[in-house]
């Protein structure tokens, strides 16, 4: 199998995979980075989102062969230390912006991606920024409050 060198959370990892293996499988199964979740596997729910060069991207349909030469950030790479959460993570905790938590990885990564380009988003910009992320528990109002709080704390 071919080898690929991936830059993940500031560290270089070399993996052996078939070229069309989804990045999500490599992250979870080979590198034990369990932040990104498998939801639909079809790029429709957002549970698997990671940052690719700062932009929130579903990893379930992204081939590992297309992931070289990018900076990949997973949920595990956001916090500076276990005791110092990323401001977006802290805002989600403060607002208790989850029920089952399954969408949480994607919501947090999409929020970081949104705030990277729009630091002070309007309500409509938040809704548009998170429109690729589904929450089956309907925690939407708390999620929006968390995004608004995070935008003030970044
Ligand atoms: S698991 Fe990737 S978008 Fe649903
Ligand atoms: S909190 Fe359950 S899917 Fe969003």
Describe it for me?
This protein has 154 residues and is an alpha+beta fold. It is built from 5 helices and 5 strands, in the order E-E-H-E-E-E-H-H-H-H. It has helices at residues 23-30, 87-94, 104-117, 123-129, 140-153, and strands spanning 3-8, 11-16, 49-52, 55-58, 71-73. The chain has a 5-stranded mixed beta sheet, with helices on both faces. Strand 3 (49-52) and strand 4 form a beta hairpin. Helix 2 packs across helix 5 (140-153). The longest helix is centred in the last third of the chain and has 14 residues, at 104-117. The chain starts with a strand and ends with a helix. The structure holds FE2/S2 (inorganic) cluster (FES) (2 copies). One FE2/S2 (inorganic) cluster binds next to loops.
Low-confidence stretches: none
Output the helix-strand order: EEHEEEHHHH
User: How are the strands of the largest sheet arranged?
Assistant: 2-1-5-3-4
Q: Give the overall shape.
A: globular
Radius of gyration: 15 Å
Question: What is the beta-strand fraction?
Answer: 5-15%
Topology:
Layout: E1 3-8, E2 11-16, H1 23-30, E3 49-52, E4 55-58, E5 71-73, H2 87-94, H3 104-117, H4 123-129, H5 140-153
Helix pairs in contact: 2-5
Bound molecules: FE2/S2 (inorganic) cluster (2 copies).
């Amino acid at each position: 199998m071919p080898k690929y060198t991936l830059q993940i959370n500031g560290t270089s990892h070399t993996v052996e995979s078939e070229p069309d293996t989804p990045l999500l499988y490599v992250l979870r199964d080979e590198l034990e980075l369990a932040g990104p979740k498998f939801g639909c596997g079809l790029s429709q729910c957002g549970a698997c989102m990671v940052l690719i060069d700062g932009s929130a991207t579903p990893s379930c349909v992204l081939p590992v062969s297309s992931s070289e030469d990018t900076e990949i950030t997973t949920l595990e790479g956001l916090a500076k230390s276990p005791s110092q959460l990323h401001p977006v993570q802290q805002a989600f905790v403060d607002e208790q912006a989850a029920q089952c938590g399954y969408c949480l990885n994607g919501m947090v990564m999409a929020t970081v991606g949104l705030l990277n380009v729009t630091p002070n988003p309007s309500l409509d910009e938040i809704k548009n920024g998170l429109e690729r992320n589904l929450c089956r528990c309907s925690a939407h109002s708390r999620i929006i409050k968390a995004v608004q709080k995070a935008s003030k704390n970044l």
